Automatic annotation (TrEMBL):
Protein's name according to its UniProt entry: Short-chain dehydrogenase
UniProtKB keywords: Oxidoreductase
PROSITE patterns, sorted: ADH_SHORT (PS00061)
Family statement drawn from the similarity comment of this UniProt entry: Belongs to the short-chain dehydrogenases/reductases (SDR) family.
InterPro entries documented for this protein: NAD(P)-bd_dom_sf, Sc_DH/Rdtase_CS, SDR_fam
Pfam families per the UniProt record, alphabetical: adh_short
């Protein structure tokens, strides 16, 4: 059955790919982007592809945008919009951590609460999908600002899942591995705006080498088409796993890492 699906952060990457894929599958998709140029670009791309796609501006920090979004009648909310900040958590400026949590956790929660309130009042069996991350389940060094916000999403989603079950509202997470959309690579550049060898004990060359060791490998440059195909199947489905870590080898690695944490020693 065709669904009406709202996707945030659809101006690029997974959001854009999933929006187009879901529209091609026959769903009514409201693809939202943060800024007007992204809106225009996505509208042109959908037109060029012959895809029926409604594209709207939705900046989660703009309360007028949020109020307008809450008037849309949707079946499924996909919280995909996010920003990436990283660097040593022992030295990262605190305002960058706050900004990450504001965009990646607090604003999606605010958007979600508005739709949940409406669905409960209307006795509508909606669905919420959080695009989390493998980083919501473990934290490599240098990425804690981003992964801590994703850990927060995991906690929020788990509580929502239990709270909303009595109302027929379903909750899922999708936890991508290191797919090559450019997001991870751009995020890895963020600390070099402020990291200063004359002031910080974390040295720029050491941090760059760490990021390269994580990203410049086959497992750090996975084909995003795999994840987008999975999103197109998972998002509209009324059945399936609550947590979806993709690909399988990443799920296996995350489970191994979590098991090892129980035996880790200081």
């Amino acid at each position: 059955m065709a669904k009406t699906i709202l996707i945030t952060g659809a101006g690029s990457g997974f959001g854009e790919g999933a929006a187009i894929g879901l529209a091609r599958a026959g769903h009514s998709v409201i693809a939202t982007a943060q800024v007007a140029p992204q809106v225009s670009q996505l509208r042109r791309r959908a037109q060029d592809l012959g895809v029926q796609l409604r594209v709207e501006k939705l900046d989660l920090h703009d309360h007028y945008d949020l109020a307008y979004a809450h008037t849309w009648d949707i079946d499924i909310l996909v919280n995909n919009a996010a920003i990436g900040e990283c660097g040593p958590i022992s030295e990262i400026p605190l305002d960058l951590v706050r900004r990450t949590f504001e965009t990646n956790m607090f604003k999606p929660l605010l958007l979600t609460q508005g739709f949940v309130k409406r669905w409960v009042a209307e006795k509508k069996a909606g669905k919420i999908v959080f695009i989390s991350s493998m980083g919501g389940l473990f934290t490599p060094p240098g990425y804690a600002a981003y992964t801590a916000a994703k850990h927060a999403i995991e906690g929020m989603a788990e509580s929502l899942r239990q709270e909303l079950t009595p109302f027929g509202i379903k909750v899922q997470t999708i936890n991508p591995g290191a797919y090559f959309t450019g997001f991870n690579e751009t995020m890895a550049d963020t600390p070099f705006r402020w990291l200063d060898d004359s002031k910080n004990f974390t040295k720029r060359a050491d941090l760059r080498a760490l990021f390269d060791s994580l990203l410049e490998t086959p497992s750090g440059k996975l084909d995003p088409a795999e994840l987008i195909d999975a999103m197109v199947k998972i998002i509209p489905s009324g059945e399936g796993k609550y947590r979806n870590v993709i690909p399988q080898f990443v799920e296996d690695e995350v489970k191994k890492d979590q098991a090892e944490k129980w035996e880790a020693r200081i």
